[in-house]
Amino acid sequence: MNSTPPPSPTPNADPRADDNQQDSASAGRRPIDIVNAGLKRRYAAEKRFRFMGATAVALGLTFVALLFFNIISNGYTAFQQTYVQLPVYFDPEVIDPDGLIQAGDLNADEINKELIRVNFLKLARDALRERFPEVKGRSAKRKLYGLLSPGVPQQLREMVAHHPELIGERRETWLIADDDVDMFMKGRSTPVKRIDTSGSATIVTVPSSDDTLQIISSGADFNVVFERMRTATPTDKTTADGTTLDSDMPSYLIAINHGLVKVESITAHDITGQVLLPLKNQDPATPRSWELLELSNPQSARRLKDQELAWVLSLKDAGALKKRFNTLFFTQGSSREPELAGIGGAFMGSLFTLTLTLLFSFPIAVGTAIYLEEFAPKNRWTDLIEININNLAAVPSIVFGLLGLAVFINFFGVPRSTPLVAAMVLTLMTLPTIIIASRAALKSVPPSIREAALGVGASPLQTQFHHVLPLAMPGMLTGTIIGMAQALGETAPLLMIGMIAFIVDIPGGFTDPSTVLPVQIFLWADSPERGFVERTSAAIMVLLTFLIMMNLLAVLLRRRFERRW
Amino acid sequence: MSHNRPMTMPSAVSKTLLEHADTNPGSPAVNFQAEAPPTDAPPIDAPRERPMTTIAATAVQPDVIPRADTKTATDSSRAFSSTLGDISCLNPRMQCRDVDVWYADKQAIKNISLDIGRNEVVSMIGPSGCGKSTFLRCLNRMNDSIPSARVSGSIKIDGQEILDKHVDVVPLRARVGMVFQKPNPFPKSIYENIAYGPRIHGLTNHRTELDELVETSLRKAGLWEEVKDRLDQPGTGLSGGQQQRLCIARTIAVSPEVILMDEPCSALDPIATAKVEELIDELRTNYSIAIVTHSMQQAARVSQRTAYFHLGDLIEVGTTEQIFNQPQHRLTEDYITGRFG
Ligand SMILES: Nc1ncnc2c1ncn2[C@@H]1O[C@H](COP(=O)(O)OP(=O)(O)O)[C@@H](O)[C@H]1O
Ligand SMILES: [Mg+2]
Question: What is the ipTM of this complex?
Answer without folding.
Answer: 0.74
